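Before a colleague's protein record goes any further, I have to sign it off. My question to you is simply how this chain folds and whether the tokens agree. I do not need a full report, just your reasoning and any doubts. This is what I was given:
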Amino acid sequence: MRIVLVHPRMNVMGGGERVAIHSIKEALREGHEVYLACEKFDVDAFEDFFGVQGLFNDVRLLTYPPFRPLVRRAVLYQRLIYYQLMVRSIVSKRRRFDLIMNTAEIGNQPAARLPTVQYCYFPDYFSHLETNGFPNLWELYYSPARAFYHSRVSHIDRLLAVSDYTREFVKEKWGRDSTTLYPPCPVDLYSGLRDQPKENLVITVGRIGPEKRMEVFLNIARRMPRLNFAIIGSLSPDKKSYSDMLKKTAPSNVSFVLAPLRKVKDILGKAKVYVHSALNEHFGITIVEAMAAGCVPVVHNSGGAREIVTNSVGSKWDTVDEASKQIANLLEDDAVRGEFSKAAAARSKLFRPEAFESGLARVLSEFQRSS
């Protein structure tokens, strides 16, 4: 089949881009002809960041200029219109495509008469509704976008959900059934770190931004001044003010490491505990990465994190006090921590890229039989 993968912003270089990577890999492995519709991006930097040198050698790139807002208001709507125009142009000019595979937001899905697979992270997710002090105004502002997102659903043949948590919301918000297909996690990259000597180090990993609630991680660190804490992450220019605030208010026992995790994985190998503070995270790839390295996960009791972290591999918390106590208990009894560490590393293998790829292969074979 000729498959066009829609993923406008490859330069974000997060979990969604890892989904795109392994979708491309599996499609190529199955012998399909793969096209990628996206903004222009630095291919070499992308391949270096993820360690996937040569990935795009056999992919036909259908790129367009990066989105630039005309004005500083209604940016969401400007972006939706821009991506619709760009992707629709690509699809309409190349009618020989057999399948559209969208690994980004459903709002990027063109109204094309082609079979479509949509990988869904979360339906109708608008961050301002959770973080801004004027929810009613934002509800009004986002209502046309929500209606547009719902209109795209009718163009989707198969919905894949990043977690059971997301799958339930897809059913509730969109009235559609979906299949849970956990995202590909680079477990093998970190599994060799499990048996390395550990230190009394607590870490968190992720893109530095308000949605990750790293200020909560700082609050935990303040309550445990004798422990060392570290934030490992990447930073986009639009989140610099948030990063500056974190650094300004961080206690002295917190260090910051701005680098891809794979390039500083030795720090992960030294840590005993991994803390995840995000509220209602749709999944949490970094949790799995930390588990693979032997870190015991201590995660917020919400979202997809609850599916990853069972009672046998780590703990879940609702308050900063609870998180602090759970960390303290783990570090007081190294034998117990070691058992959790072993169980966490074993469970992480359930989320290897091979599991994602085999699940996607089954979906692609269904469309191939019908094409």
Q: What stands out?
A: The CA atoms of residues 129 and 135 lie 5 Å apart. Residues 187-350 form a domain with the Rossmann fold fold (CATH 3.40.50.2000).
